[in-house]
Amino acid sequence: MFYGFIILLNIPDDMKVKVDHEHDLPVSSHLLRPGLAKEKLHYHETLEVALCVQGQGTYYFSEKIFSAKVGDIFVVNNHEPHIARSERGSPCEMIILNFDPSLLLHEDDNLLKPFAYLPGKFTNCIAAESPSAEKLGLLVKSVHHELTEKQAGYKSAVRSYVILICSFLVRYYQEQRASDPWFKSSLDFRTKRHLILFMEEHYREPLELADVAQFLGVSNSAASRIFLSAVGQSFREYLNALRVQHAKRRLIENDSDITEVCFDSGFQSLPSFYRIFHQATELAPQSFRKASPLGILFEK
């Protein structure tokens, strides 16, 4: 599974929903009939392309609102909270296509660029009047049909249709680039994914920016720019955040000695652990443990 941007943004965990696939192909589709009331925004680890096939409604994002009518296409990446609702008197119905970027792992990296957007700078809706929307709508319907009927060769057909969908999205947003820049980062999804997984795997070790630069095959300064672009934090800030998060889990899950928690979390000395932990939580490690609802279980 792709974990990319989800862990990079400060989005509450209770907004995350799990998308299950019925088969080993990481693609799913379903008919959605939104209610009249606006429900809670959510996000998921999969990428989403939605097609309005009936009625009218509204598509809400954390920073934007779009009206929805028959033929409109909506593009959503794996970290932008969103929700749809129907209009009274004309309830809408939508085909929701979800797929994991791993489906395109061995394809052209450019196919994922439409989803590597900055929410505030991106127009999620492709209006039905656009020639691209008509083509995309037919492809979304084709994916839904194949996944519903499951006839011989349907998995290959679905993969091909998803590749075509992403190809048309790339072309559409490239055409919009002159008036509304749609891709601010020169990094592709694969580089970012490998970078984040590398950090998750090694943050408990004596990790330095030079190690990341060597892993990426770039200079230290380039690695630093990659972090700022992808994460919005410096390498050191992101590394410390991972280590503090691990330490917090250790402090509330068991009664391990503070020194053990310090070094197990990747910190190289107790003074730096206390300083960084206090900066992040405004509490000393012992005080954090006691303040936790589970802290009383570990008091001696």
Walkthrough of the structure:
- The chain is α+β, with helices and mostly antiparallel strands.
- It folds into two domains: 4-176, Jelly Rolls; 189-298, Homeodomain-like (Arc Repressor Mutant, subunit A), CATH 1.10.10.
- 40% of the residues lie in helices and 14% in strands.
- A hairpin with a 3-residue loop joins strand 3 (57-61) and strand 4.
- It is elongated, with a radius of gyration of 22 Å.
What is the compact description of this entry?
The protein has nine helices and eight strands. It has helices spanning 131-149, 154-176, 189-202, 209-216, 220-231, 235-253, 258-264, 270-281, 285-291; strands at residues 27-32, 47-54, 57-61, 65-68, 73-76, 82-86, 93-99, 125-126.
Q: What is the strand and helix layout of this fold?
A:
Elements (H helix, E strand, L loop, with lengths): L26 E6 L14 E8 L2 E5 L3 E4 L4 E4 L5 E5 L6 E7 L25 E2 L4 H19 L4 H23 L12 H14 L6 H8 L3 H12 L3 H19 L4 H7 L5 H12 L3 H7 L9
Helix pairs in contact: 1-2, 4-5, 6-8, 6-9
Q: H/E element string? A: EEEEEEEEHHHHHHHHH
What is the terminal-to-terminal distance? 42 Å
- The structure class reads alpha+beta
Largest sheet: 5 strands, antiparallel
Give the name of the CATH architecture of the largest domain.
Sandwich
Mean pLDDT figure? 85
Per CATH, the class of the largest domain reads Mainly Beta
Care to count the β-strands? 8
- Helix percent reads 40-55%
